[in-house]
Amino acid sequence: MMRSAALVLTWASMLSQTAPARADTPRLERRGEATQLVVNGEPKLLIAGELSNSAASSAAYMAPHWPRLRAMHLNTVLAPVSWELVEPQEGRFDWASLDAMIQAARANDLKLVLLWFGAYKNSMSTYVPGWVKRDQARFPRAALPDGQSVEILSTFGAASLRADARAFAAMLAHLKAVDGARNTVVMVQVENEIGMLPVARDHSPAADAAFAQPVPQALIDYLVRHRATLVPGMQAMWTARGARTHGSWTDLFGEGDAAAEVFAAWHYARFADTLAAAGKAAYPLPMYVNVALNRPGRLPGQYPSGGPLPHLIDVWKAGAPSLDLLAPDIYFPNFTAIADAYHRPDNPLFVPEAHNADNPVVPANAFYAFGQRDAIGFGPFSIDSVDAQPGALAGAYAVLRQLERPILAAQATGRIAGFKPHQRYDESLDYAPQRHDFGGYRLTVAFADIERPAMTPDTAGYGGMVIQTGPDDFLIAGQGITVTFTGAADGPPLVGIERAEEGTFDAAGQWTAGRVLNGDQTHQGRHIRLPPGEWGIQKVRLYRYR
Question: Are 443 and 485 in contact (CB under 8 A)?
């Protein structure tokens, strides 16, 4: 412990010596039509990637990855901090691994979103310290209906909640001390993919006693207050039983797994809210909970029951008001439908995990999230596994980094749209062209060459975004898309391309033009085309005529 303590002091000293006088704490702020993350007084997109689960536990393992991640054009890394590493002995904290990570991120001009692997990680409680694992009397486990315990701490263990919240708050206090003036860490995730397995709820004696009690008034009050805007699943479940305002869990939500899952969600939400409130009391960074989504046709417990799933969003909003947002981990093909569900007036979209970083649909999903749903961030999983050969993701992220300022400005004014083929859960694709009106122009985006319309599996990775920068001026970015134009609203019905040029933005936001595109490249002025295989930007000026 002496060597570890000395290392902690060394890192803390290095971090504090390089800190400026003060900085505003990162926050979420409503800016025009979008809620955005504000860091050091300026809005910021998190063009990110999440490390594999064990990567951040070793500074030596991570050493070659940090510069590669920067070279991939990430500006943010999502990195786990595990309870077992930072509090190996109860009440004695070792921040060496966290401080080393902060120092490495700063050295590579990267921001961090920390993932607290505390009581729950992918439902299980395997990241808790050994002193928690070995003391089941003090830190009770959840149980199956037959009384058999599982490797999941019960939400009804008061000592478990106190210990987890204490460690989480200690981490936030440490972050304030070493990073409050630098804002390397911009957000924190509370636990990871919470949910009960392999049954719908905990059946320990304390849980059974709580299930026998009436539904908490705080949840009922929320349902009554938000009745008109409840998610369809919750609205149907509650109103089918008369929208009762008092009674048991089964009275309000039905027999069997339905009521059991709502019960589980409420108590997981209360657990997470306690952590978030304790953390924010120490250092009020934006905080969120992520969700492992449910597969169609599966029952609660076959997926992590009680997490902030689409049909349980209202339960979590009622039970965890200290959280800033609920964030979907999207590995299923129907990305657009899931992103749409989590983009709400009370919930800005953040996608902390998505298909593994080498999946070809990932870049198009990022463009859709930022362009169509005003996402504050996007992070494919296991980014350290592909940073040596990043493929298309690096090119797509290079374009997003160039467009960060225009994207943020357009999100706030509503002058942005994202496009990608809508993929269904069964992986079939809807290739239909998509349309969006920008003032006097209607843009139609097709996902294949108009002159060669045959579709291939690669089409799932086509996509892009359009940003209106002036009445007649647009930035069109992406790959595998063809954009045509007609007049909208009053005025001449026909639209021509006055000028189109490819190019890049430098770090200061200045445009450097490349080729001026005409002739075959615009089909003699009929369309703008960004060919498959290379993510790029075109700057376009239109005009209308009769």
Answer: yes
Q: Which two tokens stand for residue 433?
A: 């062209």
SS3 381: strand
Work out the angle at residue 293's Cα, subtended by the Cα atoms of residues 288 and 295, and round it to the nearest 5 degrees: 175
Q: Which two tokens stand for residue 77?
A: 């890394």
Q: Which of 231, 215, 50, 198 is nearest to 124 (CA)?
A: 198
Sign of the alpha-carbon dihedral angle for 249, 251, 253, 254: positive
Q: Cis omega (within 30 of 0) on the bond before 531?
A: no
| Contact status, residue 523 vs residue 529, Cβ threshold 8 Å | yes
3-state DSSP of 82-134 = EHHHHCCECCECCCHHHHHHHHHHHHCCCEEEEEEEEEEECCECCCCCHHHHC
Distances (CA, A) of 101 to 55, 81, 139, 179: 11, 10, 30, 12
**How many CB atoms are closer than 10 A to CB 414?**
13
Give the CA radius of gyration of the chain: 25
Q: Tell me the longest C-alpha to C-alpha distance in the chain.
A: 81
Taking the C-alpha atoms of residue 446 and residue 460, their distance in angstroms, rounded to an integer, is 12
Write out pLDDT tens, residues 471-495: 999 999 999 999 999 999 888 999 9
**Can you give the length of the chain in residues?**
546
Q: Could you tell me the two tokens for 372?
A: 């169509």
Residue 135 to residue 145: CA distance in whole angstroms: 22
CB 445 within 8 A of CB 508: no
Q: Retrieve residue 411's tokens.
A: 């999100």
Q: What is the pLDDT of residues 59-92, one digit of tens each?
A: 999 999 999 999 999 999 999 999 999 999 999 9
What are the helix (H) ranges across 180-303? 205-211, 217-225, 232-239, 249-253, 257-282
Kindly list the distances between the CA atom of residue 465 and the CA atoms of 238, 333, 518, 538, 544, in Å, as whole numbers in the listed order. Answer: 39, 20, 21, 11, 22
Contact 234, 180 (CB under 8 A): no
Do 396 and 390 touch, CB atoms closer than 8 A? no
Q: Positive or negative, the Cα torsion across 122, 127, 130, 136?
A: negative
**Does an H or E element contain 43, and which?**
strand 42-44
Residues 6+ apart with CB under 8 A from 58: none
pTM of the model: 0.93
Q: From CA 128, how far away is CA 119, in angstroms rounded?
A: 6
Q: Are strands 325-329 and 287-292 parallel, antiparallel or unpaired?
A: parallel
What distance in Å separates the CA atoms of residue 413 and residue 291, rounded to the nearest whole number? 30
φ, ψ of residue 198 in degrees (nearest 5): -95, 20
Return the H-helix or E-strand segment holding 528: strand 528-530
pLDDT tens for residues 24-46? 999 999 999 999 999 999 999 99
Whole-angstrom Cα distance, residue 174 to residue 432? 51
Task: Read off φ and ψ for residue 306, nearest 5 degrees.
Answer: 90, 0
Counts of helices then strands in the chain (DSSP H, E): 17, 25
